[in-house]
Write a structure and sequence with these properties.
Elements (H helix, E strand, L loop, with lengths): L25 E7 L7 H11 L4 E7 L5 H7 L5 E6 L13 E2 L1 H6 L4 E5 L2 E5 L2 H11 L8 E5 L3 H12 L4 E6 L2 H8 L7 E6 L5 H8 L3 E4 L26 E4 L8 H8 L3 E3 L1 H17 L5 H18 L1
Parallel strand pairs: 1-2, 1-3, 4-6, 7-8, 7-10, 8-9, 10-11, 11-12
Antiparallel strand pairs: 3-5, 5-6
Bound molecules: 2'-monophosphoadenosine-5'-diphosphate.
2'-monophosphoadenosine-5'-diphosphate binds next to α5.
Length: 310
């Protein structure tokens, strides 16, 4: 991984067409802090190589005080664009030229495209969520969905569910105020409710039992996190015919997914979301159909290697 150096001067923009052969290798950056753990460089590079795109996907570890300088660097003609990850997804909106309506709605940017020095910004997490469920054969129209968590990832889930035409969305969270902020993203015909993340509270259990799809967006169950090995939902609350979608992908088989599977529900893992949001970003930078199978295989390989090395 090349390291981010804020002292390097940006070069002038040369054109706005991402894949015009320019005789030199182009760059796509991942802007985050930290970034060393990210799987994106592995599966994005595999996709670029598979399609013969002369570009390198680089992880830039950018501390908050250097964010504006890093964004300016993206205007260079050498840069096709960037992915943006924690902790910059919200803050970076101030520095780009054109956040689109979707990015504004989610309140976060995860993808920037350099169009001749102008930085267009969007959010492909929403498409990643929808495509992960589509790929698993899940039809969302008219469904009842329960979403656990109310952080940044949950915001993209709410926007995705609304656009997919679900009937009911129950948000379950530990902190009521954060769920209330998400309820404001509703509107239209969508029936939105809140339930506390408290196993002794009947509304939580019934929101799971009556859901067609349960989406888990908290860090509960994440490897090396504060609630490693735990599931926010006990297996007894799941049933066959339901879909359980965990946005956590380390480990690939989370306790939440294991609980759902034990009860006969259909598990959908977070690696799918990671790959599909990346695939949508790839499409925007290159204008090419992303090789999703290549990306998935490489992401899985990178994850397995990391698990063996820890
Ligand atoms: P992200 O961008 O990944 O969604 P975030 O914005 O920090 O991250 O949100 C984390 C979510 O996980 C929140 O819903 C948080 O609950 P609170 O709003 O109550 O803080 C939830 N979360 C994190 N750790 C948790 C835990 N141990 N138990 C329950 N919920 C937890």
């Amino acid at each position: 991984m090349r390291t981010w150096k804020s002292s390097a001067p940006p070069t002038a923009a040369i054109d706005g067409d991402p894949v015009t052969p320019s005789g030199r290798t182009r760059t796509i950056a991942l802007i985050g802090h930290p970034v060393a753990h990210s799987l994106s460089p592995r599966f994005q590079q595999a996709a670029l190589d598979a399609l013969g795109v002369d570009a390198r996907y680089e992880a830039w570890d950018v501390p908050p005080e250097e964010l504006s300088i890093a964004v300016e660097r993206l205007r260079s003609g050498d840069l096709l664009g960037a992915n943006v990850t924690v902790p910059h997804k919200v803050e970076i909106m101030r520095f780009v030229d054109r956040p689109d309506a979707l990015a504004e709605r989610v309140g976060a940017v995860n993808t920037i495209v350099n169009r001749g020095g102008a930085l267009e910004a969007t959010n492909t997490d929403v498409a990643g969520i929808v495509r992960s469920l589509e790929a698993a054969g899940v039809e969302l129209q008219g469904k009842r969905v329960t979403l656990i968590g109310a952080g940044g990832a949950a915001r993209a889930v709410v926007v995705a569910m609304r656009s997919a035409g679900i009937e009911r969305l129950t948000i379950v969270n530990r902190t009521p105020g954060r769920a209330a902020a998400l309820l404001d993203l509703g509107g239209g015909d969508l029936d939105m409710r809140y339930a506390p993340l408290d196993a002794s509270d009947g509304t939580f259990a019934s929101s799971i039992r009556t859901a067609d799809v349960v989406v888990q967006s908290t860090s509960v169950g994440m490897a090396h996190g504060p609630a490693e090995g735990e599931s926010p939902v006990p297996a007894e609350w799941f049933r066959p015919g339901q879909v359980a979608f965990d946005l956590v992908y380390v480990p690939e088989q989370t306790p939440f997914l294991a609980a759902a599977e034990a009860a006969g529900a259909q598990p959908v893992g977070g690696l799918s979301m990671l790959v599909h949001q990346g695939a949508e970003s790839f499409r925007l930078w290159t204008g090419m159909e992303p090789p999703v199978d290549v990306m998935f295989a490489e992401a899985r390989r990178a994850l397995a290697e990391r698990q063996h090395s820890t």
